[in-house]
């Protein structure tokens, strides 16, 4: 996949709801907190979906029942770190509201400026988290909070912790100071040790609906013919949708893939497989994306062929092209093509020779 969903969506979401992008913004770098000029505040009201999680977190604060450790699990780009960032702000705030921090107290202002020493972040860059990273956190956790009643520790991409790092974290979880709240985000809950899972409360983030994803894209980029496709392709993950919509590389890859599918459909056996293969070799690192695009396109051909319905196409922006070329396929051929794409995907994942897998697929698609 081209998409790099491990970005900190807090700043992205703020850019969507605020008038204009914040200037001088930067991300967390390692364990250090860099300053950012925040022109408006993001709170739970701005989060699309995830109502069960948001209501539960709000209730914990309202009823003063905040525990010591939480795991936010779900797909990459689903909004775990965005929610974690808002929740952390509420925990640090002297007078939090039902949807977010007050934004006025000293703790809030420092947190919004990325300078609150009571907030500690690890793993923001998706690299491995080693035992030394957790040991530094362990040294910090014994220091009482300076500006808040709580100290909040955010470990993003917690699945990247080594075994040694997880064992070190376990020592903190076994006897945490009363003021410490540790939040882990992960896209692979099972990668965490059972002893860590048993000492944390898990919040599972659900995928968003097609309409929710589409609405966010329209608010960010305005409506265009590609919005429906990206909202479908993102599979309920808003972060992925935002990355795709802003990616020229993805747009170019999609157009070239569609062009190849059409070329095979129009020229049939006359197509020179080995010339087409060059595209797959050049974009070897994006093979999953290419196969996804091909599969969705053949799926749309099959939908039109079987039902004649045009309003349920994933590639709705390619409707005219689909309608003008669908007559060249039979239902059986389209169904086989979808199957051949999945067979090739499986073989590549099983480390079958890449060129052989792709070329055999292409020949069977003709």
List keywords for this structure.
single chain, 366 residues, alpha/beta, 5-stranded parallel β-sheet, 16 helices, 50% helix
Poorly predicted regions are: 1-9, 19-39
Overall mean confidence score, pLDDT: 87
Counting DSSP E segments of at least 2 residues, the number of strands comes to 5
Radius of gyration: 24 Å
Roughly how many Å apart are the termini?
25 Å
Counted by DSSP, the helix tally is 16
Category from helices, strands and their pairing: alpha/beta
Tell me the major beta sheet: 5 strands, parallel
Order of helices and strands: HHEHHEHEHEHEHHHHHHHHH
Shape: elongated
Strand order of the largest sheet: 2-3-4-1-5
DSSP strand content: 5-15%
Helix content: 40-55%
Explain what the structure shows.
- It is a single chain.
- The protein is of the alpha/beta class.
- Helix content is 50%, strand content 7%.
- The chain contains 16 helices and 5 strands.
- It has helices at 9-17, 51-62, 80-92, 106-112, 131-141, 163-174, 194-197, 210-221, 227-233, 238-245, 248-267, 273-282, 287-307, 319-325, 331-349, 354-365; strands spanning 69-73, 119-122, 151-155, 180-186, 201-204.
- The protein has a 5-stranded parallel β-sheet with strand order 2-3-4-1-5, with helices on both faces.
- Helix 1 crosses helix 3 (80-92), helix 5 (131-141) packs parallel to helix 6 and helix 11 crosses helix 13 (287-307).
- The longest helix is centred in the last third of the chain and has 21 residues, at 287-307.
- It starts with 8 loop residues before the first helix and ends with a helix.
């Amino acid at each position: 996949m081209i998409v790099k969903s491990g970005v900190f969506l807090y700043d992205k979401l703020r850019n969507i709801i605020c008038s204009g992008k914040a200037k001088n913004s930067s991300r967390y770098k390692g364990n250090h907190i860099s300053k950012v000029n925040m022109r408006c505040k993001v709170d739970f009201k701005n989060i699309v979906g995830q109502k069960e999680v948001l209501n539960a977190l709000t209730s914990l604060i309202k009823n003063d029942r905040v525990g010591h450790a939480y795991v936010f699990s779900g797909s990459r780009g689903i909004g775990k770190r965005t929610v974690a960032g808002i929740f952390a702000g509420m925990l640090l705030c002297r007078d939090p509201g039902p949807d977010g921090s007050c934004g006025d107290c000293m703790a809030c202002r420092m947190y919004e400026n990325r300078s609150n020493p009571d907030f500690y972040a690890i793993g923001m860059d998706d690299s491995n988290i080693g035992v030394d990273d957790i040991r530094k956190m362990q040294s910090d956790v014994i220091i009482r909070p300076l500006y808040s009643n709580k100290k909040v520790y955010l470990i993003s991409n917690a699945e990247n912790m080594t075994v040694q790092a997880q064992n070190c974290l376990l020592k903190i979880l076994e006897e945490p100071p009363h003021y410490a709240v540790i939040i882990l985000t992960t896209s692979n809950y099972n990668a965490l040790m059972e002893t860590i899972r048993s000492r944390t409360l898990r919040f599972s983030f659900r995928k968003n609906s097609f309409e929710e994803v589409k609405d966010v894209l329209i608010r960010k980029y305005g409506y265009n013919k590609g919005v429906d496709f990206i909202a479908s392709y993102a599979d309920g993950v808003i972060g992925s949708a935002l990355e795709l919509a802003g990616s020229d590389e993805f747009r170019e890859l999609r157009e070239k893939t569609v062009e190849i599918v059409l070329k095979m459909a129009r020229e049939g056996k006359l197509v020179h497989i080995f010339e087409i293969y060059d595209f797959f070799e050049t974009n070897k690192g994006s093979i999953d994306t290419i196969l996804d695009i091909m599969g969705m396109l053949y799926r749309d051909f099959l939908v039109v062929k079987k039902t004649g319905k045009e309003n349920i196409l994933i590639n709705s922006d390619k409707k005219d092209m689909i309608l003008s070329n669908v007559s060249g396929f039979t239902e059986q051929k389209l169904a086989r093509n979808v199957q051949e794409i999945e067979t090739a995907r499986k073989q590549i994942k099983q480390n079958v020779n890449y060129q052989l897998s792709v070329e055999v697929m292409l020949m069977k698609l003709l």
